[in-house]
Amino acid sequence: MDIVRHRHDTTSTVGGIFCGMGAGAVWGLVFLAPELARAFSPLQLTIGRYLSYGAVSAVLILPRWRALAHSVTRREWIALGWLALAGNTLYYILLSSAVQLGGIAMTSLVIGFLPVAVTIIGSRDQGAVPLPRLAPSLLLCAAGALCIGWQALTPSAGGFQRQQIAGLLCAIGALASWTSYAVGNSRWLARLDHISAHDWSLLIGIVTGAQALLLIPIAAVIGVEQHDKLAWMQFAEVSLGVALLASIAGNALWNRMSRLLPLTLIGQMILFETLFALLYGFAWEQRLPRPLETTSFACVILSVAACISAHRKPALLAAA
Description:
This protein is mainly α. Helices cover 83% and strands 0% of the residues.
């Protein structure tokens, strides 16, 4: 019985890791969206992405809507509201603002600590792998995050300006926002038996789309620049593409992974988003990674491998 259970746990872990890699691969494409539609502001990109996400989610969930709506309680709708805000709307606005104010290097340095934050919180769950066993993985994760931003941060070592401080605060806000989403979403999925991970993702999409509608008046007050028809068509294509790949497919893979892996291992899977985003960035800029960037890749891979090893040891001992 112990051997069968161990095999089942191993299969679930491997399947969850592949789901996490897939989610990171499509989420990394989000960082290309501002480059593909440079004429539009982060707020406009947020609205376009999440309106498309909400519309596609509504179409996909329509056949099951009547039965599903009766099974979702008021408490769950409230949870969907703050998960949509923390994991999508607020996070993307803060992330875009951090990049514009403080630069990509500083933002990636701060966001690169997402796995550390999620893993530390997850280590407090009952039955979780002890934090000392996760220490090598966390140290490698932190080293990788430092390598990602160190080279570009060096010229700014003379001191922070107000704009850089504002960007740093936005990046920290984005870190806190997505950390709360990752932890909260994982715990909600663990207690939901009557809603599939895919339907939960689509419900978050519908709520996120409703929040994007509320952002339209704000964008109108700020002012909308004039764009030609070709620019608007490109904006629509980018918004729909990001919605289908990153929001629909990526979130579905992430939710599936969240039901297969413990929270301490889920945190490490976020590293794949940073890894793939950097790979796409190198392809877009048509260059090879620099020495520090290569070192960060190695740290990311070793960090995930160390975390997987830490989770396998207790299972192997239990089987023995």
